[in-house]
Amino acid sequence: VYTRETGFLTTEGLEADTYRRMNEVAAELNMPIVGHAPVNLGLEPLLEARQPLAHLSALAHVYFLPMFGNVGWLALTVVSLTALTVLAVTSGLAAVVNRWKVVRPPRAVRRVRELAGLQLLGAAIAAAAAILLLPGGPLFESGTLRVLFTLMILLVAAATTAIVVATFRIWALPETSTGARVQAAVASIAGIGLAWATLAFWVPVVWRSSDRGIEHLAVLLRDAGIPVQTTLVAYDAIGGPGRRLLVTDPAIEFLHPDVQRRWRRLRAAAPRLRYTDFMKKVARILHDNGVPLMAGTDAMGYPLVTPGSSLLRELELLVESGLTPYDAIRAATVEPARFLNQELEFGRIAPGRRADLLLVDGNPLDDVSQLREPVGVMARGRWYPRQELESMLRELAQSGG
């Protein structure tokens, strides 16, 4: 979408030809693009287009957990697991009936059933490990769980290989029933599908959120010259550890009364997922590897993310991520100016630059929260002392935002 007023192109994910053409037009017009990642296309088109990202979390949709562009792998996983589960249930019922009839199935048939159970057990343990360590999980940093996941998938693959061998033997036995042959064939086909999906897709995905996986992504983004807006405060608003701070943000009272009422009804829920912690780690590794970070908040895009104060919280979160206060402030000044091709207009304090200044009684390079208590603000060369700023805020609150 191109707007002459702002001079921006944005995207939430388009078809390949449209996405490619959009970036070509942007390059011809020498206009920056900022938007969501093309989740239906994946990481490679993003790197090729060198499109800046509006959210750090967009990387989850194209790299850490790329569900939208891999529906086939998801379908294969679900169908295979469903078939194995149904087979396990029917085999269990058959075993009970046969025991009651004192009928003992051939050894090869019993082995297929045992191996199918082993497949499901390995898949269940792997699924539990994945839930704990994927982005936002309580143990997302655990290397042990990643090794366990990989071992369980290898167990599934080994059991599948044994089932395929046993299936050939079953079909070679003339006395084997048709039902046993069908069960063995289903176990083989479903096992092959599950092993293929997990080895080709799920194992690499699980390791992408490891330190090395994040570093690999950072190098790709750096080499492509893609800047990323962080928006860490938005993840806190969804249910992160800083949600309690956002609920009590005094700046909410300067918003429209309807917004205030809606937001005040939100409870300061206890942290549920560690998604904010994971994204803070991603931000640190991207920064350490030279990826340009820009402090963004998506203010008003999420409940409790208030314009102005949310940016101050964003800088604090960047420092908590491992950036220095200097680097955090740079992400809100120098990098945005560079992205907008306005380095000679703003972003630095220098002769000829726009006179937008913030004066604080302290050194924000020691403590970035010093920015919350300004002595005054200069906007376009006009000085606003603290008393006048507070008066303006009171008037704003009284007028209903």
Overview of the structural elements:
This protein has 16 helices and seven strands. It is mostly helical and 401 residues long. It has three domains: 1-51, no CATH class; 52-58 and 214-398, no CATH class; 71-208, no CATH class. The strands form three sheets. It has a three-stranded antiparallel β-sheet with strand order 5-6-7. A two-stranded antiparallel sheet has the order 1-2. The chain has a two-stranded parallel ribbon with strand order 3-4. Strand 1 (2-3) and strand 2 form a beta hairpin. Helix 12 (275-288) crosses helix 13 and helix 13 crosses helix 14.
What is the molecular shape? Answer: elongated
The total tally of domains equals 3
H-E string: EEHHHHHHHHEHHHHEHHHEEEH
Radius of gyration of CA atoms, rounded to a whole number: 28 Å
Q: How would a textbook summarize the main sheet?
A: 3 strands, antiparallel
Determine the mean pLDDT: 87
User: What is the SS-derived class?
Assistant: mainly alpha
Strand order of the largest sheet: 5-6-7
- Residue stretches low in confidence (pLDDT < 50, at least 5 long) are 1-6
**Strand percent estimate:** 5-15%
**How many H/I helical runs?**
16
Task: Count all strands and give the number.
Answer: 7
Distance between the termini: 30 Å
User: What's the helical proportion of residues?
Assistant: 55-70%
